[in-house]
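Revision sheet: structure tokens.
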Amino acid sequence: MVDSDSVKFLATFERSFYKYKEHKIAIYGTGIIAKHIINYVLGYNFECVIDRNHTGESFMGLPVLSISDAVKNVNLIIIAATTKNAHIIFNRIKPYLNPEILVLDSRGLYYDTQGRCNNPYWNETSESLKRQIAAYDVISFDIFDTLIMRKILRPRDLFDLVERDLGGEIPFAKWRIESESCLNGVGTFDEIYDD
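Predicted:
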């Protein structure tokens, strides 16, 4: 059975990638985003997965190749990582790419040869953004580090504070960090706490 988060993920993916259905696609990464793509997305030509630590293995039925081998067989790479990590990954694989290979992140934003992402909002003025916002009845934002600044040095410091408030007998910080790590840092809140 497919849950509502998976349905939402699939709809977003389809909206961003429908024009690439005929491409030969490599998925960069073996985390939760890659799993969601392979599990739920149908009708695309996923040829392989790229992961330098698991080359020669299989991931969810797809061969795992090095970047140098994958670029011989595909014309599109989807970086299945968070936005912050996608930029780092692109710069890591850039020397292996030829101009015929498109590179997109999991939201469908592409990277040019200099590693710049085509995020449409980067070219907007504050006035044009205000006009776009005014067109909607409801606007939703990520809360932490977007609208509210945390009063801790690192987000993970919060786990130590929770553990302290629990009396220190429950190793909350360790469990929370391990759970998120198992999901490669990209799990949903429910996935992190279900682990």
